[in-house]
Structure formats: C-alpha cells, structure tokens
Predict the 3D structure of the following.
Amino acid sequence: MLHYVTVNIDGADIKAPKGSSVLEVAIEYGICIPHLCHVPGLSDIGACRLCIVEHVTNGRSQVTTSCTLKVQEGMVIRSNTDRIKRLRHNIAELLVAEAPNSRAIQDIAVRCGVKKVRYPFRNSNCVLCGRCVRACAELWHANALGFVGRGKDRHVERPLNMRQEFCKGCDYCIQLCPMTITPCDGPMKPGEEYLCGKCESQLMITEEVPDSCAWCRLGEGFNCGRYAGVKS
Amino acid sequence: MNLSKLESILKGRSSQPHQLIEVLHDVQEHYGYIPEEAMREISKTLGVPLIEVYRVASFYKAFKLKPTGKYVITVCNGTACHVRGAQLLLDQATSQLGIKPGEVTDDGMFSIEHVNCLGACALGPIASENGTLGHHMTPAKLRKLINSLNREVKKEVKHA
Ligand code: SF4
Ligand code: SF4
Ligand code: FES
Ligand code: FES
C-alpha cells in the first residue's frame, strides 16, 4: 500500500506518495521547477542544480536540489523565492555559457530569465548531466558508457571497445542527451556563440495565455512566464 | 600478463563489489598498473560492470591505466613544494628525460609524475624515486639522481 505524506510546496498542501522526490511531486501537481538532469524513471543525481528549492525548517531555509530531496511529512518547500530565482538564473547562465549549442539549454536559459551571458562561452559538447550514463545502466543494464576521469577532466566515454561489446543499440543515450538538438539557426562555431533567446517571443504568448507553456512536454498547466522577469 | 597472481588477488573475493578498490590496489602494486585483462577479470569476478571498474581506476591517481617506467620520478607540486620551486624540479626532469609528466621514456625506464602533496611539506620541495623521498630537492640534486639512475640502466643493459 502506498503511504502518503503531506508537503507544502509554494503554499499548496500536497498529498504525496512517500519515497517520491519534491521535484516529482511538484511537477505532478503542476508547479514547474526547471530541471535538466532529471528524467522520469531514472535515478536522480543532482548534477545540473537547476531544480534548486528552499527547504524551510524551523524558520531557517536551506537551498537544495529538489530532485534528490525526498518528501517528508510536514515539509515546507519554496520553489520561487527571489533567492531561488537569482541562484537559478545564475546556474542557467553558467549552463548556457558551457553549452550554447544545446537548444534545450538555450530554452532553459530563456525560461530562467537569462538576458545576457556574463561568462565566456566554452562551447563544450557535454554538460555532464549523466542522462546517457543512467539510461544506459538503468534502462538497459548495458553499462556501455560512463563517467571517466575526475575534476575538470571528467567526461563521458566508452573505453576498452565497450561499444562493440556492451551497447545494445537502443539509442537512448542520444535521445536523452540535451546536446543533440542545436539551436534553430544551427550549430554555433567557437568564438561566435550567443544567447539565442528566440523562444522569448513565445514566452510572451505564455504570459498572455496562461496554462500554455512552449517549453516542456510537461508544460500544460504551467505558466513559466513567472520566470521571465527575473532580475540578474 | 601473468594471470596466476591476479587469481590469487581475487581469491575469496568473488561477488564482493565493495572489494573493488582493495583489489585495484593489489593489482596496481603487483603489476605497476591496471592492465585491461585484469579489469575484465575483476569485473567478472566481483560482479561489477566493466565501466565501473574503469571509472574507479581512472578516478584515483594511485591507479595507472598504462605501464609506468621502471623508475618513476614523482615531483610534488603541492602548495608548500610549489612555493619552494617545485616547477624548477619538474622542468629539470622533463628536459633531462625528454618526456612530459604522465609519459614514459621510449626504453620504458623512466616516467615522470606530479602529485599534490606527499605529506612531507616541511622537507620540501620533494621529488621521489619509486617512493623513496628526496627532501630539499634542487634541480642540481635531481639531475645527479637521474644521472645515477641512468648509469644503473646502462649497467643492466650490459649485463643483460
Ligand atoms: S545506445 Fe548503447 S550506449 Fe546508448 S544507451 Fe543504448 S545501450 Fe547504452
Ligand atoms: S553526453 Fe549528453 S546526456 Fe551524456 S552527460 Fe553529456 S550532455 Fe548529458
Ligand atoms: S534536475 Fe535536479 S539537479 Fe538536475
Ligand atoms: S606540498 Fe609537497 S609534500 Fe606537501
């Protein structure tokens, strides 16, 4: 039997199944918390930090990633405070500087209110979200790729000819990778990166037509326009 | 590669994934690096996916994925050694041996490593040869050390 606990997210008391994460519960209920590395059905590793929320206990609040935070009875969560918006804005800005060639990440940046990028573009091909690695290991038990190295040398690799040996050809690693769809105008060359922001026009629609979000499949019922006017 | 040693390392540890690091340590100690065959064997015996074995082996500096030279010159580049001129030592070693840190000389005799602190900061700067620490190193001292090792190498070649 499922056990339920009651958590309060952004003022709403929500009955949530025990064992689920705050992010899952919020999305299910219709509160949009931007996220990147979370994939429904895969384990959460808190890699992208986009899904941060404030967890309030005894009047003190602690910023933590909601995808790795399990619901507890009486929990109080704030997902849209000024502090969170500011921090999330910064995280999105860093992400888009790291990987401007990902449409998903460009979209997230717009959604989190990034208007200009103050960091040098690095244009790397991977944001280390670990979606591919977890899909490969958890959905297919193939274990054909993984993180190798550490610190700034950490990267995704299939060493020792693992592709031939273990890969089951499911293509999930590619489908789930945020890097596989480039911005609408095509890939940007190193040195010519920019904040795309094209989807901002759609954001205007979102503000005018509540309950329609142009960005995520889960977006029906969300009004992400609330992330638009964030001051940096 | 001599598999009997690997067998004895793995003995009594089958299906114990938590033994992974211990096993890697033993393999590193015996073979001087972690050979691919060993990783495959470890993966099978402990029941850890091969990529996990590789990931752990690539994560820690204590594990080498490639064979090292017979003589490993390790230069400490920790803060204490750094401010006392560790870079000069590294320059000396790299120019004298003609290889970069992490590489092995063509004859397989020397390799150079750099680490972040060997735990003997007060005696810095430190350069070690196969684990034997040389304290208060200077480029001149290091040059002499490498020269004497070179003479050893020549002697060995003659005797062989
Ligand atoms: S295509 Fe191969 S590497 Fe990619 S997730 Fe599937 S099994 Fe893993
Ligand atoms: S390759 Fe793609 S999915 Fe895998 S970690 Fe990098 S960005 Fe994420
Ligand atoms: S979705 Fe929670 S850290 Fe990426
Ligand atoms: S810094 Fe070199 S031994 Fe500590």
In short: Helices of chain B lie at 3-10, 20-31, 36-46, 50-59, 79-83, 86-97, 139-159. The radius of gyration of chain B is 18 Å.
